[in-house]
Every structure is written in C-alpha cells, then in structure tokens.
Amino acid sequence: MQFTSTRNSDLSVMFSKAVQDCIPADGGVFVPSQIQDMRRWIYYIDETTPFSSIAGSLTSALMHEEFSPIICETIATDAFPNEPIVTQLDDNLFSLELYHGYTGYHKDYGVAYLCSYLEATLTLKGGNVIFLDYTHGGLGALLAKLLKGKKHLKAVLVYKKGTVRGIDEESLAWNGGNIYPVEMEGSEADIKAAVNQVFQDRAFVENFGLTVADSTNVCRLLGQMFFYPYSFAQIKKKVSGDIYYAMGPENYGTLMAGLYSWRFALPVSGFFMPSSPALYSDPKGNPVVMDSLVQIERRGKTNPVSPANIERLEAFFRDNQLMMRNFVFPVDVSEKEREKAAKELYMKYGLFSSPETAEAYAVIREKGKALFEEDAAVVLISHNHPALSADYCRHVIGEVPEIPESIKESLRPTELNRPHISSVEDIKAIIKAL
User: Fold this and answer.
1) What DSSP letter does each residue of 398-418 carry, written as one string?
2) For 297-350, what is each residue's pLDDT tens digit?
3) Element of type H or E holding 272
4) DSSP string computed for 308-333
5) How far apart are the C-alpha atoms of 360 and 354, rounded to whole Å?
6) By Cβ atoms counted within 10 A, which residue in 46, 157, 228, 403 is the most buried?
7) Helices 227-235 and 218-225: angle between axes, nearest 10 degrees
8) Confidence of residue 294 (pLDDT cuts 50, 70, 90)
C-alpha cells in the first residue's frame, strides 16, 4: 500500500515509511494514494466475525507487499483484545461504542494498533522508535499499558505540571520501563511549540527514530478504519436502506477513517456531525472547511502534536467539492438541543452520554426523521466512556454512570518527584539519554 502527501502528490512511500516518518518533508500529512476495492471481502464478513479478525484480514489485504497474512493476523490479535460494542436502539438506529478499550477513550484502539504494528515491523527489520508527544494525561496511561514488554518502543511524554496520571511505577524509564514522563514549564501552547520544534530538526528525528502516537500518524487512522466494516458486519442483516454515521464535533480522525473505508467500497452514504469552527455549513447548507480559506502553499508546516485531519479532509475532496456536499453534513446544535438529546438518550434508551455523543444524537433528532422515512439507518458513534463526563451527566440527568476500575486506574495522579524542564534542549537531552 502506497502513501503520498497532502502537499505533494508526486511523493510515494510504503506504509512503514509513512508510519515511522510521520510528517513528510513538505510539511503536509500522509494519505493513502492507492484505492483498493475491498467489496468482495467486506460482503463476506458478518456479525459472527470478531473485530480482530476483521482488522487482521484488512491489514493483510492492504499490506500484502510488506507482511504475510500470519504476521498481519498477529498484529491485529495483539492490538485488539477488546471489541467495540454495537447495539440496536430502534428499528433504524444503532449505537457504536468505541470506549471499551484500556482507558475509556476511542484512541485506545488506534494507539494499540500503532504500537502492535511498529513492534512487529521493528522485530522483523530491526531498529527502535521513540514516541514524542504532548499529552493531557490519557495517552500516558494508555502507553503505560501498551508498551509493557515491548523491546523496540519507548515514549517521551511531555505534560503541563501536575497533569501526569495513570502511569505505574514499573513503567517509568528510570525504573526500567518504557515511559519517560516529564513536566514542562509554560502554557499548553508553549509546550506544544517546544515539541514541534524538536520535530523540525529532521536530522535529530531520523537519528533517534521519533514519531507521534496521535492521529497525525496515519497508522492511527488505519486502526480507526476497522470500526466501520465491523459495525457494518454487525448491522447489515438488520437494515435494508442506506447507512449513515453520526459523530461528535472535531473527531475528524474518525471521519477520515470512515471516508477511507467508503473509498475501499464499504457501503456508507454519509456522515453527520455538529458544526464546529473548523467545519460548518454555509447559509445554503454546504459544508465549509475554514482552513480552505488559506491557500495550502501559504500555510506553515503541520505541527505533529496538533493532528491535521482537516487537511486530510481537504485533500480527500480537493477535486470534487460536489461529492463533499453530498457526503459530509455539519449541523448547528445549540446547548439546549444538546441537553434535550442527552436526556432523551437516557430516558428512551437508558444510555448515559458525553457532551459530544449528545450533540451527535441531537443531529440525528434534527435530520433523522427524513432519513428514517427513506428506510435509512443511522449509527450513533460514542467515542469516549460517559463516566469521563460524570459532571455533565450529573448536571443534565441528575445521575452518573458507574466508572470501570480500569478507567479509575488511568485517572489516578502520578507523582514524578523529578525536576521540571523548560526548553527544547531539555527534551532532546532526555531523548538522547534513552
């Protein structure tokens, strides 16, 4: 499978190169350059096909030039001991819960796949990789679980002071583990700028094998792409019309994963989401990408700590804006409409929801009637566990969901008791020491 850049269509690299060197030299982001028709394979799977088998088969189909089917199956099996959950709520309404991983966030699946893929690649071909990421805390808790026992992967995670959580003692690098968390002076913007500055030193990045674990890394998107064929397999015998997906605002990595799934011949008729400053509708109802108001040649290079999936969205529809108008549907949602939606989800279906899931359901309430009259089905995507939005649930519903023990563990503060850092050179010194 070949990949190109959003800013240089002449570039062509293998998947392994796109994953380890996650930012092209031209400052764009990697996107698939080959379109493979997976129709025969997609229609073969059904509700009995495990998530890991779908991921393994799709990995093999897309990466047969690099790996044998056995290795592809191993990558998926190691990455996905947990499955998303698909539930039928009404005749034409389904729920897709993506929070049944390690820490209650949807990113658990994509990061797990990225780590499994890299460990397999590096075991076969040699070498080591270091993740360098800014995080609010959840990524560290996740990587502490995923990197246990990994021989070729380490992570340097940069936090604001007092936000480290969910990392056990044995995972810390100074105790022999694979995680080096560090607290840095300054604002979030300052810290992100420092991490980005490290990535601008391409010689340093290549020398120490640096990459990121956020969805700037195209492997994260591939891990999220499996959600769609899996949900299709779960519901295809229960629906007879078109299939739409509704998701919260600004989860554009999930949107892009869905669009790539459609390009590989998965039956999807469109994506609904609440409007955001980055993606909204004009007075005629047409989707508008705010970044498109600035020519791509006049933009700065992609910041690896700020996922650039909106640029991927632009590239996907660059030559066909009409298709975008018929495929991506941003809808304005007020706070009052969001609260009504959250209450209805609870009263009608017994579901707690995060604010983002409630907004997505509000879009379904706005647009769903016309769709259901056409016998279409809508899949409501819930990205993160509602227990992570307990205050919101208490405010809107008056009750809170039970929090799983694994999520409690990931939220426990971690005291580093080590000096803070304050500069780019401090980050580089830590990477050199690893």
Assistant:
1) S--PPPPHHHHHHHSB----S
2) 777 788 888 878 888 998 899 877 788 888 999 999 999 999 999 999 999 999
3) strand 270-274
4) -HHHHHHHHTTT-HHHHHTTEEEE--
5) 10
6) 228
7) 10
8) low
